[in-house]
Amino acid sequence: CEYAEEAMTVTDDGGVMSVDCKLGAPSLSVSCSDSADLSRCEENGGALDTSAALNGLEIWTRVVQAPGTPHGLTCEQVSDEQNEANGGGQMEVNCDGKGVCREVRQCIISCANAIAHGAASAKSASLSPIGSCGAETWSACGYTCSQTKVDSVLMNDGKCHEEKSLEVTRPCHVQACGRSDPCRVPFVLHAIIKVRGAVASRWTKHAEEIFAEAFAGTMNNGRRPTQLVFEPGDVVVLNASPWRASDDTIFGTSSLEGEDEELGMQLVVEISLFNPNAELPPLKGSGNNNN
């Protein structure tokens, strides 16, 4: 399978397509008190010096909402620019290519605060959830054909905290992965699926995830893992709209004897059929956005 690679990043007028990476809001994965070395609070005599200052690290997790194009800013560059614009201090950022970036910041905490946080954590009383940080959705499907779902909860310290144990990664072949290599994704199908009695206005991203799981499971029923037609990460719902009686006739409302009754909901679904035997080319150039 061969194709003109340059054609994938050229606009209709012959220019270069340049789109920057887009990152979601940060969630705290490791706090300053969690990373601080409490043993440094002990004086030579064994007593605690609660006024001493400890160096630590804060690790923040950000979901990649869109990886951008190879000629745009990478996710690391976007993170650095936003940190500088917000007056942030020294920071290191690393994006794993699976839809998640980790921002590591240096911090200082007193022994008194670190010990208090540590003792409270041991009693499971330091933090309690007070709200949601938004819907739990998958990251964008990047050029590595992987995406990650990060679950975070708003705690009473006013910060969103990542639930690390609930982080999940899965394969996908849509969005950037599906566009970057037509040899890897040779076919993209579109289907209209109608659901009688469903209400389109109640459709959410969570409902889309449930649908993708059920749709892929139904199509792969009875197949071996090596014979799957597609997986949940290969399904995207492009549109959810009311299904009306006039939608079932080419003559529209003029052919109806009564009202244009709303029968349910119709989904426009895009499915990527990938080639598991495709030889994946390496990402070339430091400017490539591989997240």
Which key terms come to mind for this protein?
291 residues; 16% helix; 5 helices; three-stranded antiparallel beta sheet; alpha+beta; five-stranded antiparallel beta sheet; 30% strand
Q: What features would you describe in this structure?
A:
By secondary structure, this protein is an alpha+beta fold. It has helices at 32-35, 75-85, 111-122, 175-180, 205-219; strands at residues 22-23, 27-30, 53-66, 91-95, 100-110, 129-132, 146-149, 152-155, 160-162, 168-171, 187-196, 235-244, 262-273. β8 (152-155) and β9 form a beta hairpin. The model is unreliable at 119-125 and 284-288 (pLDDT under 50).
Report low-confidence residues grouped into runs of 5 or more: 119-125, 284-288
SS class? alpha+beta
Approximately what portion of the residues adopt beta-strand conformation?
25-35%
N→C terminal distance: 24 Å
Total strand segments: 13
Helix proportion of residues, in percent? 10-25%
Shape: elongated
Number of helices: 5
